[in-house]
């Protein structure tokens, strides 16, 4: 207390007295060792996304195996090891690969078609007000409409087979991708737009060279959602009319196994759908993300 | 027009600018006229609401005047063009998906003004001028604010525009960086003697950077005065002349008759 002399103590105002200046030598910091040190192996492992996810997956599979052993009813809930051996068996004799390739064809055509249509619609939407009204009305109308509900109509129009599948997949991809792309375009900063126009960009070059890369995070999110929708729609559609289709895809593989009460094979079919989904998400989309929005600092 | 008056680069005549918000029609400037000569460091100074940024954007071709005309280098302005490169205040003006070098080359490539190796050499030279050679392959998000601004300036300068338009370019920087950027801009001007139109709301910045200062009054923006400031720089901040000019500008902006007359008599 005695240190804090104050000139105006009586008035209750604290005014510190002037203190002496000082300069000093820096404290010796050599004891601390290297300024940048590697974390211990265990901590680095925990910080690795892939390692953590693998641990989650392994735990999940253990749980599955344990519960199935406990239940002991292969008709309701086959063990993981059983499912895996059937998956491997069907993979090796080519049946599963054949089914997957059959599914892939309409899937990729429908996905690409949906993206192209979305690109055309969003380009129209950013270049004219009427285009924007058109897109927002269409999206509001058709986005909530489940693709599978359009399937009966597709069957009437195109009959059984590829065209119907492609039609419903396009329906499921188009609106999700268009909606995300448009909101991405709208959130491009005004300064960046002006800057692009200043360089002399206009029309289709403005969309391709400025808006698309600038809105890429939203576009990529749309593409991911679109991919998931396409998969779901395809499998569901195959389940509905796979019965009468001569060479079915993965959905038909699942349907077939169900009618033979081959539950392990149903699981194997579901597992392959999941594995393909995981591969596309964590390898293909991840690689795109790493090379684009992460390198550009648009996402941490 | 530039034929009979070869030194006049930018001619703004009775320009009235209006823009629409969803609810209102706002008049930003009313019958503004000014002339920028080749080699001018022409500063447009005014409080917020005087339409200085809007006027600069109109010269950039982003906004069309409702009345009056803007002529740059003998050509009437009808839209944005790379003969008038603009440097904005926001760091978002750089393309995050391009490296420093690619950013600087971008306008050259898309406008087709410079091509291939020529564009690359010019870009490298411009990057060197703003001393960013070490960072030419870095992406903008890894740069500091001052460095991003240097990239934007290099990008604009590399295009060799008729006039460089700067919209409060240093306003988002911290005070120390801002001062360094002002000095660097002046050093660059000493080398190249380009024409620059510079918008600011800082009186000090206007006097330091500008050779000629246009003062606008707010609501709507109208011309209040045009002053000469070429001789004054950072070394003169403490001089009586600098103080007098600063006071004079202050009174022109905010009224205050006594200070104004005092400053006028001192200035002659």
Keywords:
heterodimer, A: 300 residues, mainly alpha, MetI-like fold, 12 helices, 0% strand, B: 268 residues, alpha/beta, six-stranded mixed sheet, four-stranded antiparallel sheet, 8 helices, globular
Describe the structure.
The complex is a heterodimer of chains A (300) and B (268). Chain A has 300 residues and is mainly alpha-helical. Chain A has helices at residues 41-47, 49-71, 80-92, 95-127, 129-142, 147-158, 162-186, 190-198, 203-214, 216-241, 250-259, 263-294. Chain A has a domain at 86-294: MetI-like fold (Orthogonal Bundle). Helices cover 72% and strands 0% of the residues of chain A. The longest helix of chain A is centred in the middle third of the chain and has 33 residues, at 95-127. With 268 residues, chain B is an alpha/beta fold. The chains are: A mainly alpha (300), B alpha/beta (268). Chain A binds chain B through residues 189, 191-192, 194-195, 197-201, 205, 209-210, 213-214, 216, 292, 295-298, and chain B through 57, 60, 62, 80-82, 84-86, 88-90, 92-97, 106-107, 110-111, 139-142.
How far apart the termini of chain B lie comes to 34 Å
Count all strands of chain B and give the number.
10
Nearest-integer average pLDDT of chain B? 83
Total count of strands of chain A: 0
Q: How far is it from the N-terminal to the C-terminal residue of chain A, by CA?
A: 50 Å
Largest sheet of chain B: 6 strands, mixed
Tally of helical segments of chain A: 12
Summarize this, please?
The complex is a heterodimer of chains A (300) and B (268). Chain A is mainly alpha-helical.
Give the arrangement of secondary structure elements.
The complex is a heterodimer of chains A (300) and B (268).
Chain A: H1 41-47, H2 49-71, H3 80-92, H4 95-127, H5 129-142, H6 147-158, H7 162-186, H8 190-198, H9 203-214, H10 216-241, H11 250-259, H12 263-294
Helix pairs in contact in A: 3-12, 4-5, 4-7, 4-10, 4-11, 5-7, 6-7, 7-10, 8-9, 10-11, 10-12, 11-12
Chain B: E1 8-20, E2 25-37, E3 41-45, H1 52-60, E4 67-72, E5 75-76, E6 84-87, H2 100-111, H3 116-129, H4 145-158, E7 163-167, H5 175-192, E8 196-200, H6 203-209, E9 212-217, E10 222-228, H7 240-254, H8 257-267
Parallel strand pairs in B: 3-8, 3-9, 6-7, 7-8
Antiparallel strand pairs in B: 1-2, 1-4, 4-5, 9-10
């Amino acid at each position: 207390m005695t240190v804090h002399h104050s000139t105006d103590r009586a008035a209750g105002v604290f005014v510190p007295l002037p203190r002496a200046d000082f300069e000093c030598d820096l404290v010796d910091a050599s004891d601390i060792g290297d300024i940048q040190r590697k974390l211990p192996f265990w901590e680095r492992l925990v910080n690795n996304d892939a390692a953590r996810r693998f641990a989650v997956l392994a735990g999940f599979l253990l749980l599955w195996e344990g519960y199935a052993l406990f239940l002991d009813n292969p008709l309701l809930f086959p063990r993981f090891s059983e499912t895996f051996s059937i998956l491997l068996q069907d993979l090796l004799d080519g049946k599963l690969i054949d089914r997957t390739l059959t599914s892939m064809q309409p899937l990729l055509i429908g996905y690409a078609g949906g993206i192209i249509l979305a690109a055309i619609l969003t380009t129209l939407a950013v270049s004219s007000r009427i285009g924007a009204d058109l897109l927002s009305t269409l999206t509001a109308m058709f986005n909530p409409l489940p693709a599978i509900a359009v399937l009966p109509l597709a069957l009437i129009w195109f009959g059984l087979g590829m065209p119907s599948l492609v039609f419903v997949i396009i329906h499921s991809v188009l609106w999700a991708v268009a909606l995300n792309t448009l909101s991405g375009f709208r959130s491009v900063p005004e300064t960046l737009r002006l800057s692009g126009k200043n360089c002399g960009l206009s029309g289709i070059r403005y969309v391709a060279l400025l808006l698309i890369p600038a809105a890429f995070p939203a576009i990529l999110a749309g593409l991911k959602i679109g991919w998931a929708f396409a998969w779901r729609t395809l499998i569901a559609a195959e389940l509905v009319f796979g019965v009468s289709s001569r060479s079915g895809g993965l959905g038909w593989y699942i349907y077939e196994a169900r009618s033979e009460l081959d539950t392990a094979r149903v699981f194997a079919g579901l597992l392959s759908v999941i594995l393909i989904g995981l591969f596309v998400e964590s390898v293909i989309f991840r690689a795109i993300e790493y090379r684009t929005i992460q390198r550009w600092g648009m996402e941490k | 027009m530039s034929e009979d008056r070869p030194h006049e680069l930018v001619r703004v005549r009775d320009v009235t600018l209006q823009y629409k918000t969803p609810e209102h029609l706002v008049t930003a400037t009313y019958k503004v006229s000014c002339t920028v000569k080749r080699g001018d460091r022409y500063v447009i100074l005014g409080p917020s609401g005087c339409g200085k940024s809007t006027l600069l954007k109109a010269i950039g071709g982003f906004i069309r005047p409702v009345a009056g005309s803007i002529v740059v280098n003998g050509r009437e302005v009808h839209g944005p063009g790379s003969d008038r490169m603009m440097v904005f205040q926001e760091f978002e003006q750089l393309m995050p998906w391009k490296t420093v070098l690619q950013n600087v080359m971008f306008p050259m490539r898309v406008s087709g003004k410079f091509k291939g190796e020529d564009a690359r050499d010019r870009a490298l030279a411009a990057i060197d001028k703003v001393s960013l050679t070490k960072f030419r392959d870095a992406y903008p998000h890894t740069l500091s604010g001052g460095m991003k601004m240097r990239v934007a300036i290099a990008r604009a300068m590399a295009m060799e525009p008729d006039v460089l338009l700067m919209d409060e370019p240093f306003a988002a920087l911290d005070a120390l960086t801002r001062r360094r950027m002002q000095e660097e801009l002046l050093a660059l001007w000493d080398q190249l003697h380009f024409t620059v139109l510079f918008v600011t709301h800082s009186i000090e910045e206007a006097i330091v950077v500008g050779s000629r200062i246009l003062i606008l009054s707010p609501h709507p923006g109208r011309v209040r005065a045009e002053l000469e400031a070429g001789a004054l720089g950072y070394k003169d901040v403490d001089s009586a002349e600098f103080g007098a000019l600063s006071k004079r500008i202050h009174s022109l902006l905010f009224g205050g008759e006594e200070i104004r007359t005092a400053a006028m008599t001192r200035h002659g």
